[in-house]
From TrEMBL:
Keywords: Methyltransferase, Mitochondrion, RNA-binding, S-adenosyl-L-methionine, Transferase
Lineage, top ranks: Eukaryota, Sar, Rhizaria, Endomyxa, Phytomyxea
Organism of derivation: Plasmodiophora brassicae
A GO biological process held by the record: RNA methylation
Domain SAM-dependent MTase RsmB/NOP-type: 25-371
Record-linked Gene3D superfamilies: Vaccinia Virus protein VP39
Binding-site list for S-adenosyl-L-methionine: C131, A132, A133, P134, G135, S136, K137, D164, D191, D207
Protein name: SAM-dependent MTase RsmB/NOP-type domain-containing protein
PANTHER family, sorted: NCL1 YEAST -RELATED NOL1/NOP2/FMU SUN DOMAIN-CONTAINING, RNA CYTOSINE-C(5)-METHYLTRANSFERASE NSUN2-RELATED
Residues annotated as the enzyme's active site: C260 (nucleophile)
PROSITE patterns: NOL1_NOP2_SUN, SAM_MT_RSMB_NOP
Source domain of life: Eukaryota
Example of a GO MF term: RNA methyltransferase activity
């Protein structure tokens, strides 16, 4: 049995909502899902902070702030598409394409926030996102680990490892995460069920593969294909990934298990398995007071397991499975899917987010603590998966490659960098030979913690990417200008170390906006530009202007007759309209 009738019959038996709320629940499933998004506050050049202030000041009446989200960084579109103004349509398109905002379902924002809730046991230095694609949760984690370890939106101290099993999804995720400009990012491609346990993490997010029936509002056609056995077929994979996630959590650290499924077989049954498997080493944390204003339901202590027969036969225990197969069950049904009815497990501490409570999709979240004083867990085997990362994705310290020290001196002089600039964190790709000239073309910065993880995953051949690109060699014919430029995503890491007298200039807002319209602007074509550039050295400069109390910055090339802003296409054309 499949489709809407099976869905209704199955979930009405599960009692995931009270009987009096059943109508509200099913009505919500019929309504389109509202658009929600988060602002990338750490977006290069202060643009994210500026946008957030503009939204707070009512720049677009089409959106309202989600009050329960920390720092007011999450927003919900509250009007229908036909009511959108042309300005708002342009904003949504350009800001999404550039990464200035991240389109993310409301309930999908919850796991990362729960994972990074302050616990009073020190800063969070390392996070693993085991099944990271498409990257929206990882983007949150990068921002949270940055702000909660340093207190600053543009300083990195820590590492976030984003992992996925599929190469195409890894690349999609990486493209989305580059806009964060984080030197704490490490991207790996490993089978999550056998991710290496040689290194442990302060926090682990296990957003497991699932049936996804909580996303029916976004994908209504899913309802016609819904089957009661889909969850049982995924259960074994889910418990394997979740168990490995807990093994990767440091003593005293936290792990979050989440799915976008409503099904207790994919949710409470997995939580129950972990609590029984790890015993006194694991605790299910009560997070009912976290994120005040966000409505949730407690986890279930009992649920039904059903066969895929026309009558959706209920299976009372594992003993009934064989008879159900004889009756047409046809699905994998391990004993761990059945409830133990053990009140000491306190499964009610898990959280289910059903669509009608927050006008959202459906989601499930459980937060675990690894007991600090627990005995060591049984050794897990090191990764033996045949999945490989990029064979040539090997990062080498810039100062250790041939010509690296000369390169470092070129960077220091061409950017007027102070001695405080961490040259030891600069790396180049081993595969990057710079073409026939043998000159390396891209330079990356890795946080110290990202460097540690990168060295390990290079050895295990699962590495896809590390850090943030900060410098790139140009191919200019004018030999009087330096060879390197500052990459837009790396600007926040370079700017604090540049000599302001030689490389940084504050210009009027009107001039700043005008520069965003063109690839190259003659210096004398804009009023006051030549005077502002007086005393600046030719080559790499940073142009800044004040907008709403935020200093917005862009990297540029200063030549003898013109200034060229490092153009970001649609983003800059949009910014030229919105900056005020």
């Amino acid at each position: 049995m499949r489709g809407k009738q099976a869905f209704v019959q199955y979930y009405s038996a599960q009692r995931i909502v009270d009987e009096e709320q059943w109508g509200d629940f099913t009505d919500a499933l019929e309504r389109p899902l509202p658009i929600t998004f988060t602002v990338t506050r750490q977006f290069a050049g202060g643009l994210g902070l500026h946008l957030q202030d503009r939204l707070r000041d009512g720049a677009f009446p089409e959106v309202h702030c989600l009050d329960w989200y920390p720092d007011g960084s999450a927003w919900k579109v509250v009007t229908r598409r036909e009511e959108w103004s042309p300005e708002f349509k342009g904003f949504l398109l350009a800001a999404t394409e550039s990464g200035l905002i991240v389109r993310q379902e409301l309930v999908s924002m919850i796991p990362a926030l729960m994972l990074c809730e302050p616990t009073g046991d020190g800063a969070i230095q390392s996070i693993l996102d085991m099944c990271a694609a498409p990257g929206s949760k990882t983007s949150q984690l990068l921002q949270l680990v940055r702000e909660r370890t340093t207190g600053l939106p543009f300083a990195d101290d820590g590492v976030v490892v984003a992992n996925d099993i599929d190469a195409n999804r890894c690349q999609l995720t990486l493209n989305r995460l580059k806009c964060t400009g984080s030197s704490a990012l490490v991207m790996t491609r490993c089978d999550a069920t056998c991710f290496p346990t040689n290194t442990l993490f302060d926090r682990v997010l296990c957003d497991a593969p699932c049936t996804g029936d909580g996303t029916i509002r976004k994908s209504p056609k899913m309802m016609s294909r819904w089957k009661s056995t889909s969850g049982t077929n995924l259960h074994c994979l889910q418990i394997k990934i979740a168990a490995r996630a807990f093994q990767l959590t440091k003593p005293g650290g936290r792990m979050v298990y989440s799915t976008c499924s409503l099904n207790p077989v994919e949710n409470e049954a997995v939580v129950q398995y972990l609590l029984r498997e790890f015993g006194s080493a694991i605790e299910l944390v009560d997070m009912s007071k976290a994120l005040n204003g966000l409505h949730r339901s407690p986890g279930l202590s009992s649920w039904e397991v059903m066969a895929a027969t026309k009558s959706c036969t209920k299976l009372s225990s594992f003993k009934d499975v064989q008879s159900a197969k004889d009756a047409g069950f046809g699905g994998n049904c391990p004993s761990s899917v059945f409830p133990l009815h053990d009140s000491s497990l306190e499964l009610s501490r898990a959280m289910r987010f059903v669509p009608h409570l927050n006008d959202s999709g459906g989601f499930f979240v459980a937060v675990f603590q690894r007991v600090p004083t627990c005995s060591p867990l049984a050794d897990a085997p090191v990764m033996t998966s045949t999945i490989r990362g990029s064979n040539d994705c090997t990062f080498t310290p810039l100062l250790e490659v041939d010509g690296g020290r000369e390169m470092a001196e070129t960077l220091r002089s061409s950017m007027s960098l102070a001695d405080t600039f961490p040259m030891n964190l600069l790396h180049v790709l081993k595969r990057d030979d710079g073409g026939e000239s043998g000159r390396r073309s891209k330079v990356y910065m890795l946080s110290p913690q990202a460097l540690e993880k990168t060295r390990f995953h290079t050895e295990t051949e699962g590495l896809m990417h590390s850090g943030v690109r900060v410098f790139e060699r140009t191919c200019r014919k004018d030999s009087s200008l330096d060879d390197f430029r500052i990459c837009w995503e790396g600007l926040p890491h370079v700017l604090p170390h540049m000599n302001p007298d030689e490389r940084i200039r504050l210009i009027p807002p009107s001039t700043f906006r005008a520069l965003l319209h063109s690839l190259a602007v003659p210096i004398d074509s804009l009023s006051g530009l030549r005077d502002a550039l007086d005393g600046a050295l030719l080559g790499n400069i940073v142009l800044q202007s004040e907008f709403r109390g935020h200093r917005v910055s862009v990297a540029a090339r200063y030549g003898r007759v013109s200034v060229q802003v490092q153009n970001r296409g649609a983003l800059f054309r949009y910014l030229a309209r919105i900056l005020d």
